[in-house]
Please model this.
Amino acid sequence: MLHEMIQSLPQVLIDGLTLGTVYAVVALGYTMVYGILQLINFAHGEIFMSGAFIGTAILIAFSSMGLLHSIPSILVVIIMLVVAAVLTGFLGMGIERVAYRPLRNAPRLIPLITAIGISFVLQDVVRFIAELAKGNYIITGPSLFTKQIHIPTSSISSVFHDSSFKTSFLLVLIIAIILMIALDFFVNKTKYGTAMRAVSLDRDTAALMSINVNKIISVTFFVGSALGGATGVLFAVQYGTIDPYIGFILGLKAFTAAVLGGIGNIRGAMLGGIILGILEMFAAANLSLLTGGVLGAEYKDVFAFAILILVLIFKPEGLLGKPVAEKV
Amino acid sequence: MSILEIDHINTYYGGIHALRGITLDVNQGEIVTLIGSNGAGKSTTLKSVSGLVKVKSGSIKFKNQDITNKPAHETTLLGMAHVPEGRRIFSNLTVKENLLMGAFSVKKKNVIEERIERVYDYFPILKERLNQKGGTMSGGEQQMLAIGRALMMKPEVLMLDEPSMGLAPIIVEKIFNIIDQLNQDGMTILLVEQNAYQALSIANRGYVIQNGEIVLSGKGHDLIENDEIREAYLA
Model:
């Protein structure tokens, strides 16, 4: 049994890493907003979904204009990413302005319920538009990057099987990593990133430093949402078919990843996402093996979440989270 | 000439009437202290000036400009800095980042450098701790960082909220020496304190606040001699 698990390991790692980076980038949006407002922005999954739809709309528009063959695919993806990121960034900023800011001083539960409401609104608005435009809310865009790449991992050691992936996997992985590195740099090395950390630590004192707290919160929503929207594009490129409800489960898992890493902690969200992705793919590949065929691959989420619960029992603040301590 | 004029302000926290018609003024170049016990309204007065809490009535003028209910990120641009109670340094940010946040509104790199150098003149210890996280420093060092951070804004008026809180007497002495030094270098200071003796001994003038009202005011050394004050705060 162990032998078979090791054989499939390279493929599990490749798939898990790719899925994990998607979770990780979406998790960043949850963790940034939580860090600054202590709000769980449940609408973030729907921002991701909106990004997927915006990207696919651009792709379909390009394809109907016959441009897909004349422009290199990578350029098309970059255009999709940039447009979707900017639009979802403004979407997230707008949501904060109209739905969360008026509730800034309300008890925590109230903006949480509002966030759930916003996510229903976004699902239905996107569904309405998709049906209006295409007659169906399940949309399949033209495929890009479909070439299969084989890696002869068996030549490293005979205990491994060969592994393979679509070129789009590579694209997702590379872009997600670039996004994470860029965000890490922004938050840790730039003036606005430092201001963001300052606001999340102490809003009143940040205001005394001439920092416009509302502006920083808007920037946070813009950046977090833009990352979510861009990941939506990556998801659409990877899987081809999207519907208005893809944000729900993925958002839930990304949120879980953020909690696993320690909510409010940016590097924690990245780590949590990648761990969750690998766990899930490991379960998908090995679950029926481990349980003698009783539980199939479709129980992968149960396995991943069970591990997660275990981690949180022993480390409730998350892997990289710090126990909350007040110092006067 | 008055640089800061507070005129009959009333501030509420929900139903609680925290400030009941406070009137005070600070002249250019003075150290003015506001003393009183816990919950008297000292911090609320500072927060009302800097804009962290809203006043319901009355007016606040800074350099003859009405700043009543202006938000904190705007009042601090006009030349006042507020060092909050409990220092409130950004614990997860390094000392350097804390200082840079003080100069958030400054765009020019060389101006920031100049101001950091000036902060080092007052607090040489900060230079040695630049890359340390603010929250890992001792209380006295944190207070120095909090004042240093405020100096990065190059304020004309520095408002200090209980800088002596929770510090050993020898550190308090040190902090007050620096406050005195800052004043001699031209800084106008509004000092809120529970440590009445220390505060009055460096202040030009003082106000005593009780239950949200000014009950007594006068020259620093007169207040130290005052029997009521002696009984209530200096015993």
Notes: Chain B touches chain A through 29 residues (CB under 8 Å). DSSP finds ten helices and ten strands in chain B. The radius of gyration of chain B is 17 Å.
